[in-house]
Amino acid sequence: MPRSLVVASAWLFGLFxxxxxxxxxxxxxxxxxxQVRRVPGGDKTGHFFLMGMLAFLVTLATARxxxxxxxxxxxxxxxxxxxxxxxxxxxxxxxxxxxxxxxxMAASLGGILVFSLLSFLVLRARQRA
Length: 129
Known about the structure:
The chain has one domain. It has five helices and no strands. It has helices at 3-25, 32-38, 42-61, 70-91, 102-128. α3 (42-61) runs parallel beside α5 (102-128). It is elongated.
């Protein structure tokens, strides 16, 4: 996949995540979030995949051609995404329309870990090709 497409995907996904965060921060009792809440474990699954995909795309988008220290790169960007996501989750304690949850945080961090490992495998395969 061309690097420019990966970078554009990361930006678009980041904007989508910001829009989703604003949407769920409103006192919206209808629509998408109502459907997600009806599915057992839907919220946690969403946290896992959305935050994981964010880490995956950011890690790939910031990888320059000729990258030699893949493990350091993946750890750096995975950690940065984890810090931002943990801060956002913790900040929910201060918004009346949001609910802080350690389970949400664990699902988010688990997704970041798994998808960071996946990005490591993709970058390593790219390097060997």
